[in-house]
Amino acid sequence: xxxxxxxxxxxxxxxxxxxxxxxxxxxxxxxxxxxxxxxxxxxxxxxxxxxxxxxxxxxxxxxxxxxxxxxxxxxxxxxxxxxxxxxxxxxxxxxxxxxxxxxxxxxxxxxxxxxxxxxxxxxxxxxxxxxxxxxxxxxxxxxxxxxxxxxxxxxxxxxxxxxxxxxxxxxxxxxxxxxxxxxxxxxxxxxxxxxxxxxxxxxxxxxxxxxxxxxxxxxxxxxxxxxxxxxxxxxxxxxxxxxxxxxxxxxxxxxxxxxxxxxxxxxxxxxxxxxxxxxxxxxxxxxxxxxxxxxxxxxxxxxxxxxxxxxxxxxxxxxxxxxxxxxxxxxxxxxxxxxxxxxxxxxxxxxxxxxxxxxxxxxxxxxxxxxxxxxxxxxxxxxxxxxxxxxxxxxxxxxxxxxxxxxxxxxxxxxxxxxxxxxxxxxxxxxxxxxxxxxxxxxxxxxxxxxxxxxxxxxxxxxxxxxxxxxxxxxxxxxxxxxxxxxxxxxxxxxxxxxxxxxxxxxxxxxxxxxxxxxxxxxxxxxxxxxxxxxxxxxxxxxxxxxxxxxxxxxxxxxxxxxxxxx
Length: 567
What we know:
By secondary structure, the protein is of the alpha+beta class. Among the domains are: 15-102, no CATH class; 115-152, no CATH class; 225-265 and 272-295, no CATH class; 377-485, Dna Ligase, domain 1 (2-Layer Sandwich), CATH 3.30.1490. 32% of the residues lie in helices and 26% in strands. The chain has 13 helices and 29 strands. The strands form 9 sheets. Strands 7, 8, 9, 14, 17, 18, 25, 28 and 29 form a 9-stranded mixed β-sheet that branches. A 4-stranded antiparallel β-sheet has the order 19-22-20-21. It has a 4-stranded mixed β-sheet with strand order 23-24-26-27. α6 (155-170) packs across α11 (368-375), α7 packs across α9 (301-323) and α9 (301-323) crosses α10. The longest helix has 31 residues, at 93-123. The two termini are 41 Å apart.
């Protein structure tokens, strides 16, 4: 707020395409001024658009005016209408209107995509219901995705977190940090008590998106992130990326700028001749580019490569602290699940930096988001803002709101799935701008309201380092999450027997704190239950795991690699 030169993001809807209608609903849902339907009809005739967003004041308390505007727009031939009372029936006009406008902007594209996808599935003889991943960590039916595309904005990373949660839970770990590092970015998240943390405080690009999403923090650090030297002579990594085409120099596909993957090649951590099939082989070009970068920094090529990896690690460690330390969690109480093609290369160094004692590398580390799709529950979130003093809340009224949301959710969950409901309220101290989410008991009475207030004070203490139990509280939003519990597929891991030494593919010089002669293991050949002392490199078909000299690795029964992080 102190930057005099700050520029705001471009509005989703230009000023000349925003319109007003005469109506007014009060802050408690009372109709103060009826909707002027004639004016809406006249306005609709002049709108030339295939998709329209409708956002009226206090529609979260009473959405009848918005519904009527939507009907009149549809009657006038508007193909797609998004109502804020359906997309995000919550307080804060900017966030509510922005979410509705983005939803309206995305709907035509999403409707066309899902329609084509459904048609192709039918043509292929596939009669299974089409479902899509949502940003909230659950899957939804195709119709919901068509009408609410804003709920899919971070669906890919959310699926990865779900996959990580599933793998870790099978090993008895339910308190996790997750790290998904691909070619252009690294997505980190936190899982508490076996469930990914879901938030409504997320920015996608320049826009704050207030719909429920898995709390994912993204930094521009991936295998293709380009290393460069800034005007002050400091080494920087990313956010610009070489992507998949042309990709890092070591791919041999025309890349010219050194990347994180190239640095690993120079350090001996990955073998450019032995990954991605026919990709690789440009070793001389890779070393020359790193050496040129090192000349600008006064370093030899090995030190320059080590510096690139260290800078990338620092960026990712900072992101992990954002989702843990800055939110009141102690990383020493967590395990780190590392996945994505590049995540396992960096996991041990980052875990040691942050203080995490154990790293888990799933067997399907490179395609964990696909596994996440298979194990995710059908999930629907419903919410409504009801700003009231907490001590003035009527338990019966609150209970009826919860039950109505639960009935809505049950109608959307397939009949063959077990239904589970989770109740929450967003509370704040009176006068505060921001709120905290607190779970609600299954039955609402005066005793339950008191217990929820106590829990809010505890969460406030954890999150902000202080609480004020004597201060009055305010209810902000009522929420229900409905799950259709999916029976996940039973994956039968391949059991490998033998001696770990039989899995050694070669020995090569690898740079850690110094150069070390390091055995390189074929992941698929490591025996189940085997332990490997560092230093070691474990190469798999989708990712490479770095085991530092102070670390130890164990192969779990399901093929997950458990890495004990040394100091």
